[in-house]
Design goal:
Length: 557
């Protein structure tokens, strides 16, 4: 390379290094100057409030994306098809845990406002968070009620199975088979006894007949000897002189009288012996070489053999029935223990929690749809309590069918259920009255939900005025309830229509997982406490289908 070329290359490298140093120095100066500028500026209360509201809204969105329907689905890993499970940065939340975090956020956002508009915005946001938290608690209570209903149904089914086994007679099969065997043996013994008795009667007749026959034979023989003597005497008398024949004739006459007396006595003895002879003759005809007796003996012996074999099978059936009865009893006892655990450890605390929050302040604004949504939630709450009463009544009926005393418990439960039905009716009437002046576009879905819930509970809700027609302008929201503006502005206070989540919730705050199929009232023997399909205000578990901010049926937009 020529010297001038090397010189030009060196100069170019020097200029490039100088430019890099200048850029690095400028960047360093800028990076050190920016913190100084930030430190010179103190955020105003309004800026701090806006920032806080934005942060709370973001946290609410994060909570809503992590809510799962059941605590069983809470996990810190996510299964991946064809690979290992992926670790989640933040685990899923059960509805109850999500409700607690939403209430904490509501308390946090209440104290975050700086200006009047921000205070109003924070208050509205806190109301919606508390209401969404209450809806999540209500959803969790429904889930627990579903579990209780399933367990109560399992208990009733097992008790019914025990009653069925008892009605089948398998438990008493051994005793019944033994009784049949004993009866068969008794029949054989009775038949043998009757044959033996007849034989004994014939033997007794023969024994009694022997002396009579001997006496008859003796008397007849004596009479015949006298007849011979009489003939001899008569022959002598016929050849003798009259004087010699007279004594002979007198002697023949006396012997004739004696022979006649012997024959009369023999005839008398023969009449006495005739019954004995008849008995012997009849018994001999009935017992000697009689095929019927042999057939009867064979039949009775076969019956005894069959009964003995049936007794063996009956013992096996009874053993199996007893084993199954014990298994069903143990399963019913275990389920009853689980039912009691659910009742005391989960259902009652959740019931108390919902009752405290649903009747507390700070759940509704001035919007009528808010009031209607809370009233429908109260009706759902009463329906869940009715379902709990129905579960208790079904268990009581099952226990009564097993012979357990119940006293007046059924009447008390019916009275309690009637009271809860009245509360549900009052809540539905309140919801319908609240919607009487709401536009038809926003009120119609909620009215349908009210009608469906009333029909499911068997409650007749009196008709009220129809919803007001839809407004012709875009300004349909009450002036005092207008949604605040800004990045952290919640959607609206109105309850949404269709399957969308409550539109008045903060972004993501009311976004909850879908409710699985089934209802607490689906259990046998329990009245349903259904969740109307078209009322998201009555069911916070319905998954979002559209962004509340762009819902065409939102009255406050």
């Amino acid at each position: 390379m020529a010297p001038h070329s090397r010189l030009l290359g060196a100069n170019h490298e020097i200029r490039t290094m100088n430019r890099a140093r200048i850029l690095a120095a400028a960047t360093l100066l800028m990076s050190t100057a920016l913190p100084a500028c930030n430190g010179l500026h103190t955020p105003s209360p309004a800026e701090q409030g806006a920032k806080k509201i934005t942060q709370v809204t973001a946290k609410a969105r994060g909570i809503s994306s992590r809510i799962t329907y059941s605590p069983d689905a809470v996990s810190k890993t996510l299964p991946v098809e064809g690979g290992e499970a992926k670790e989640l940065a933040q685990g899923l939340l059960a509805p109850a845990d999500a409700a607690k975090e939403l209430r904490a956020l509501a308390t946090e956002v209440t104290s975050a406002a700086g200006s009047d508009s921000q205070r109003k915005e924070a208050k509205t946001l806190a109301i919606r968070m508390r209401r969404d938290a209450m809806m999540l608690d209500l959803m969790d209570l429904e889930r627990i009620s579903q579990l209780k209903s399933a367990i109560a149904s399992g208990i009733a089914e097992r008790l019914a199975a025990i009653r069925s086994i008892d009605a089948s007679g398998d438990l008493q099969a051994t005793q019944e088979a033994a009784a049949r065997t004993k009866a068969s043996q008794g029949a054989k013994s009775a038949f043998d006894g009757s044959v033996a008795a007849e034989t004994d009667r014939a033997d007794a007749a023969r024994t009694a007949l022997q002396p009579l026959d001997a006496a008859i034979n003796e008397k007849e023989s004596s009479a015949e000897s006298l007849d011979i003597d009489i003939q001899t005497l008569r022959a002598k008398a016929a050849t003798s002189t009259p004087s010699a024949a007279l004594p002979l004739m007198i002697d023949a006459r006396s012997k004739l009288d004696a022979a006649q007396t012997l024959r009369v006595d023999a005839s008398t003895d023969d009449r006495e012996a005739e019954p004995y002879r008849s008995t012997v003759r009849i018994v001999d005809m009935a017992t000697k070489d009689n095929a019927e007796i042999a057939d009867t003996n064979k039949f009775l012996a076969d019956r005894i053999d069959e009964s003995s074999k049936a007794e063996v099978g009956a013992k096996a059936r009874a053993s199996a029935a007893m084993k199954r009865t014990r298994e069903l009893g143990a399963e019913a006892a275990a389920l009853m223990k689980d039912f009691t655990t659910l009742e005391t450890e989960l259902f009652q605390p959740a019931l108390k929690n919902v009752e405290e929050n649903i009747n507390g302040d700070g759940l509704t604004a001035k919007n009528s749809t808010d009031q209607a949504a809370i009233a429908i939630a109260k009706a759902r709450f009463a329906a869940i309590q009715m379902d709990a009463v129905d579960q208790a009544m079904s268990l009581m009926a099952a226990a009564q069918s097993m012979g357990a005393p119940v006293g007046d418990g059924e009447a008390q439960l019916r009275a309690q259920r009637d009271k809860l039905a009245g509360n549900a009716k009052a809540a539905l009437v309140e919801a319908r009255d609240a919607l009487s002046g709401v536009e038809s576009g926003a009120g119609a879905p909620m009215l349908r939900s009210i009608a469906e819930l009333a029909a499911a509970l068997g409650i007749e809700v009196p008709a009220t005025a129809a919803p007001a027609p839809a407004a012709t302008t875009d300004e349909s929201a009450p002036a005092g309830d207008a949604a605040p503006t800004g990045d952290a502005a919640p959607a609206t206070d109105a309850a949404p229509a269709g399957d969308a989540p409550p539109a008045d919730a903060p972004d993501g705050a009311a976004e909850v997982p879908p409710t699985p199929a089934g209802d607490p009232a689906a259990a046998p023997g329990a009245d349903p406490a259904p969740t109307p399909a078209g009322d998201p205000a009555a069911d916070p578990a319905v998954p979002p289908q559209a962004d509340p901010a762009t819902d065409p049926e939102e009255p406050n937009k």
